[in-house]
Amino acid sequence: MREHLSRHSGKYLFTLIVIVAAVSIGVDYSVIQDFELKVSELKNDNINLKADVDALASELGLTASELRSSIKTVEADLTSTSESLAELSAVSGDFSSIVEDAVHGVVSVLTDDGQGSGAIYSDDGYIVTNYHVVKTATDIDILFSNGARVDAVLIGADQVNDVALLRVGLSNLNELDFGNSNDVKIGQKVVALGNPLGLSFTVTEGIVSAKDRVITSGAAGLIQTDVAVNPGNSGGPLLNTDGEVIGIVNAKLQGYEGLGFAIPSNVVISDVNVILAAASSP
After folding, report:
1. Is-catalytic flag, 132?
2. Which of 89, 132, 145, 226 does the annotation list as catalytic?
3. Overall pTM surpassing 0.70 (yes/no)
4. What tens digit of pLDDT does each residue of 132-171 get?
5. I need a surface site. Which of 13, 35, 51, 281 has the fewest CB within 10 A?
6. Superfamily assignment of 181-273 in CATH?
């Protein structure tokens, strides 16, 4: 009886193996067919696309390679054109987009002996202004574009170059981007932001009239500009058409119009580094 069951069990097992193998082969064959069909469709699409490119190239009198090169050139030209349009906006006198960002990095410096302007140097609370704005002050307040007003302390100054560094107990401030004043060119357009005559966050524009003007013996040469400068502008930033600070406004010739001056940004950066180093030394 056991032999009879064993023989039948063997037959059933063999039959089951054959069925499973057949199903497996059938599934694999179906998958392979689907894969080959997809590959064939992709090849056909590629052939059709190549034919379209060749046809377009033929109509334009170009080879496919030349057409692809032309497309890349057009894409590059479009990118360049977009950048040029942004620059043209500023060059044409429309500083609105630049000022919209930069104004948040400009402050009014209010003291018990007067007022001036300042530029946020770093987001952790450092602010640059002129030394003459704060040299006789016992109390210094900073007024931000959002209306906030906080106390500030004088960290240090370069009295000769008329640069002062203040600090407020705030962080995440809207710092301005200080550019390379060596790249400044006579005739380029500039804009000044500041607090002239107590009129906070006023914007005036002009051009660079000259470079390296020595006004004070021993001090660095200044950037001369025809931007309207009035009492209260001192310490405010002078921006180029890229929105970079290229100078800090610090003087005008009294009794004359169109003769303003700014401390070059490279001089300001150098002075700030010296002040910070001195402040951190024991």
Report:
1. yes
2. 132
3. no
4. 999 999 999 999 999 999 999 999 999 999 999 999 999 9
5. 281
6. Trypsin-like serine proteases (2.40.10.10)
